[in-house]
Structure formats: C-alpha cells, structure tokens
Amino acid sequence: MGKHTEIIFVEGNSTDNTFDEIKLICEKYASEFDLKYAQQDGKGKS
User: Higher pLDDT residue, 33 or 45?
Assistant: First the structure.
C-alpha cells in the first residue's frame, strides 16, 4: 500500500453483527488508517 490508502467497508445487512464489528474496528484504528464504512439500504448481491 502507498503513503495514503483509504479502506472502505460496505456491509449488506448481514444478520451476524458484521456492521457492529466494522464500526468497532474503524473506531479502534481511526488514528492509524483512513477507514470508512457504509451500510447498504437493501440486501447484498443475493
């Protein structure tokens, strides 16, 4: 990865608390990495 790398998590409304884990990781490493997250409105691809 280069000097600046942005990591984006996109969650598709899973039922196993994935979105909560993504938020925790983003908060934990916010000072070290450029992390962003989003949650889709509907369901994922399937």
Answer: 33
Q: Please state the pTM of the whole predicted model.
A: 0.74
Evaluate whether residue 43 is within a structural domain.
Answer: no
Domain of residue 24: give its range. Answer: 8-35
Residues 19 and 28: their CA atoms lie apart, in Å, by 14
Residue 17 lies in a domain: yes
User: What total of structural domains would you count in the chain?
Assistant: 1
36 to each of 14, 23, 29, 42, 46, how far by Cα in Å? 18, 9, 11, 19, 23
